[in-house]
Design a protein that fits this description.
Structural class: alpha/beta
CATH topology of the largest domain: Translation Initiation Factor IF3
Helix content: 25-40%
CATH architecture of the largest domain: 2-Layer Sandwich
Strand content: 25-35%
Largest sheet: 4 strands, mixed
Shape: rod-shaped
Number of helices: 4
């Protein structure tokens, strides 16, 4: 196996027994870091410190990952122009702050007959928001709701 590390006098290929002996002499551990390579790569290090560094790295990556916030906007199939503009302005502000917008038309009772009207409403909503966000999915009827997702446009 190939032995590497800061504490190794001469990095190279050694038999397992000799590598273990070298690690014991330095009161450290022999840790396999690349088992699939030929020959396998091992490092002479303090294992507890190694585990701690791995956890720290994973935690840092997790904190750097962006969390996606989804804001919902609900319409009725017969939403008036003023209400539409009001909700449009809210959606613009949500998209500018980097949140995704989930716009949906909720159909009550027999209003499901107006599903085409709901689809037109959502498509118009997406067209009006074109400069702030792009539609991730086209309007899709799920039960009594017609849903559409809009993601913010990346700023350059």
């Amino acid at each position: 196996m190939r032995v590497v590390g800061d504490n190794v006098p001469e990095q190279g290929i050694y038999p397992i027994s000799q590598a273990l002996k070298m690690a014991e002499e330095r009161e450290l551990d022999l840790v396999e870091i690349a088992p699939n390579s030929d020959p396998p790569v091992c490092k002479i290090i303090d294992y507890q410190k190694f585990v701690y560094q791995q956890k720290k790295k994973a935690k840092e990556q997790k904190s750097n990952a962006s969390k996606v916030v989804i804001k919902e906007i609900r319409f009725g199939p017969q939403t008036d122009e003023h209400d539409f503009q009001f909700k449009l302005n809210h959606a613009k502000s949500f998209l500018q702050e980097g949140s995704k917008v989930k716009a949906y038309v909720f159909f009550r009772g027999r209003s499901i007959l107006f599903s085409e009207q709901g689809e037109k409403l959502l498509l118009r909503f997406a067209v009006e928001l074109e400069e702030y966000g792009k539609a991730e999915q086209m309007p899709k009827l799920e039960g009594k709701r017609m849903i559409m997702m809009i993601a913010p446009v990346k700023k350059k």
